Amino acid sequence: MSKNPPKNYISTTNACKLCTPLGASLAFKGIEGAVPYLHGSQGCATYMRRYIISHFNEPIDIASSSLSEKHAVYGGGPNLKLGLQNVTRKYQPKLIGIATTCLTETIGDDVPGLLKEYEKEFPGVKPLLVPVSTPSYNGTHMEGFHDAVASTVNALAKAECKATHGVNILPGLVSPADIRYIKEITTDFGLPATILPDISDTMDGPVTKTYEKIPAGGTPLADIETMPANKASIEYGHTMSDQSGGRILQEQFEVKNYRQAMPMGIVATDLFLATLTEIGGTSIPEKYRAERGRLVDSYVDGHKYISGKTAIIYGEEDLVVGLSAFLAEIGVIPILCASGGKSGKFAGEIEKATGDILASQPQVFEGMDFFDIEKLCEELQPDLIIGHSKGAPLARKLNIPIIRVGFPIHDRLGGQRILHLGYRGAQYLFDLVVNAVIAKKQDDSPVGYSYM
Amino acid sequence: MELLKERQDQIHRTGEEPFALVCNKDSLAGAVSQRACVFCGSRVVLYPIADALHLVHGPIGCAVYTWDIRGALSSGPELHRLSFSTDLQELDVIFGGEKKLTAALLELIERHKPKAAFVYATCIVGIIGDDMEAVCRAVEKETGIPVIPVQSEGFKGNKRAGYTAACNAMGRLIGTGYTADISPYSINILGDFNLAGEIWMIREYFQRMGVEVVANVTGDGRVADIKRAHGAALNVVQCSGSTMDLANLMEKEYGVPSIRVSYFGVEDMAQALYDVAAHFDDPAIMDKAKELVAEELQILLPKLEFYKKGLAGKKAAIYVGGSFKAFSLVKAFRLLDMEVVMVGSQTGTEEEYRELAEITDPGTIIVDDTNPLELTSFLEEKEVDIFVGGVKERPIAYKLGVGFCDHNHERKEALAGFSGMLNFAEEVYRSVMSPVWRFT
Asked: Does residue B341 belong to the interface with chain A, where contact is any CB pair within 8 Å?
């Protein structure tokens, strides 16, 4: 097996990452009454809306300052302010999350300064304005996502709030189904939780018969303000920067921050639930012992079909870390972990998550695109490909089953309902993995056998 | 619903006098336009040229959001379905991206052996001032294939400006190929993108009439064909905005005349064939066109009856990229005995909107460059049964419990031509008549 990183190409082909403002827009969509607003040219907002809609099948209104040539020369300030007025009038948002783009970062618009001017020029009641710097030439959508969360915490969290018994959960980019499940868990644990952001209703809403300008749901602003009063924060993922929402709460307000891998599989979920009991001082409800028991039972039932099978995993670094831990514990061997992200921490986290099970570490590469992944995949001939739908062409070409997880899922229905986290998410993923292997064997077999 | 002041003059209701509708202006900041940008306009037009390298020069977003974005099929190479980017990083922005662009081009041309390369400028390239012309010229010299810059900086206008940039880029290829063996009865197909294989159907119609198709611009397009497109006797232009500039350029430089057509709906499809036949002034070609239309209608019309019965009287709303397509859709709905109550586009011209006002029923809403909130109020006011649009319009319809027909770039159903009309009726029927609306 090759241990050499792929040749360092200059060009990128079929990227395995998205740009920073997209992540920021998704994060802002998880805040109550918020409208994401991109300070840049019109195309950015429209492209990202289209990209996000194709996953969630939900409307997503992202405003834009729609800059044209003269703004690029003389500065985008006037259009930024005009756009803020129009969004305020039409949407009556409680918060506008303003993400910059490569255009406005490069022409040097000082967005925080412009917003101060705007506050002065237009007195009266206005939505909260939360700016975040997201030049798309720096980082991936995950940096944009985490930075938007951090900016929101920075802007809203207040020192003078009364102590509560709750917990802050900063889950990163997970599915609406995941967030609904986290809410169920924390409720069952008797722990009031502030989940930031919360896209469970805003990006997976019911048919309404009327167009909700801003869909109901999202993390309540009042709850974000009182995050400093909660007992602790749990932040999923290890690869984000030090200036994360959880770290800010810890440094500025002394809220203890638990950075944990995404709770995928039994080991990581055990840790998550143990942390909840530690914070809340309660014990694990029977329901979860039962869920875990059934999960272990299914692991046993299915283990022979998948034991020793190999997989390549790609996507956001923290998601891949979570998946690699899950796969390792069910006996599937990750042989390549790839991401378009470049945190510098990826390989170390994979080792931490899998080191006690895997005999040897997979190849782990940052800054990968699907050209690189395909080359390695051809060489490694894995049994499974696991990641979002952009790996589907590769899976088809190489005739290897793909398990679709994460974001985006553009070629199947229901990306927003994929459950990744907790025992229940592990159960869902486990059944998918086992059945993918069985289906492949069945498809390749001349015998249409009817028992496993 | 209260309209934003700046938006009021971009909406007209048929029957109101005088006709007044402002269009082709920059999108209003904060209005959540459904439009994209200059880059998008260029990218979608050139995208289907399947044996060219399409390299997006900029940070990763622009390339990744246009990866395999169109359902534009190729009968051969599929290089167009890959997403290439220079993926500019902060240091490139500071020190300039020319070196990286040169290296990326050389690397990709070596790897994929394309017949030509298009290099798309994004917003940031326009700001940092990379000399794409010079880079392309140097790489062209070194590799021996045409390397063509597309001046599609996102902020330099709207999607229409992107169409122009794409046409200018193709203009550089045209005139460089061999044309002596081209039939006098020959055309180029402009403005069809071979979504779900539509251009194959259209080409077959023309072949049945005895007309040679020289170049597809750009559906299932090939560099070599485009190089010799100037040898065709006529440009047949569909899609009002995207390739008209190229037709004009070819008329000016090579004396190739053009006609405008649409392949959607029975009337317009038949008219397109008749117009081409009439241009050649050859009774044999006209006879074949008539024969073809008669044959196709004989198959189609009885099949449509079933759908008409279910759909008669239902109300339709249309919001598409270019308004020329909207004409055909209005007629297609009429053929199904349906009523069009709203029609709009991202990039229509005043003349087109004026014509729409002439052919639609009184009270029909005509709108330029609209947004989700306006669309919602129109759909509610007019109690629409089916909305025709693209990906961004779909969830708006669905949230309101309104049926939807995908008439976008990525659709998998052929809607052009005679059999396309049947598919269209079927798709509209499947959505409008679905039992799921009982629960919404």
From this structure: no
pLDDT of residue A203: 98
pLDDT tier for residue B34 given thresholds of 50, 70 and 90: confident
A375: closest CA of chain B, how far (Å): 13
- Walk me through the domains of chain A, giving residue ranges and CATH numbers: 20-156 (3.40.50.1980), 167-260 (3.40.50.1980), 286-444 (3.40.50.1980)
- Report pLDDT for A211: 85
CB of B231 closer than 8 Å to CB of B182 = yes
Tabulate helix, strand, coil % of chain B (nearest 5).
Answer: 50, 15, 35
Mutual angle of helices B266-280 and B283-311, in 10-degree steps: 170
Strand partners, A408: none
| Beta carbons within 8 Å of A106's beta carbon, 6+ residues apart | A135, B93, B123, B124, B127, B128
Q: How far apart are CA B39 and CA A362, in angstroms?
A: 39
Minimum-distance CB partner of B123 among A37, A41, A57? A41
Does B35 sit within 8 Å of A89, measured CB to CB? no
Contact between A12 and B84 under an 8 Å Cβ cutoff? The reply is yes
Taking residues B60-68, what's their average pLDDT?
95
Contact A32, A156 (CB under 8 A): no
Minimum-distance CB partner of A10 among B36, B100, B127: B100
Residue B287 DSSP code: H
pLDDT in tens, B167-182: 999 999 999 999 999 9
> Which residue do the tokens 């990083």 mark?
B89
CA distance A444 to chain B (A): 28
Q: Which of B29, B154, B401 is opposite residue A82, by nearest beta carbon?
A: B29
pTM exceeds 0.80 for this model? yes
Q: Is the pLDDT of residue B415 over 60?
A: yes
Other CB atoms within 10 A of residue B90 CB: 14
Full set of structural domains in chain B with CATH: 38-165 (3.40.50.1980), 186-291 (3.40.50.1980), 312-409 (3.40.50.1980)
Helices B198-208 & B266-280, crossing angle to 10 degrees? 40
CA atoms within 13 A on the CB side of B378: 30
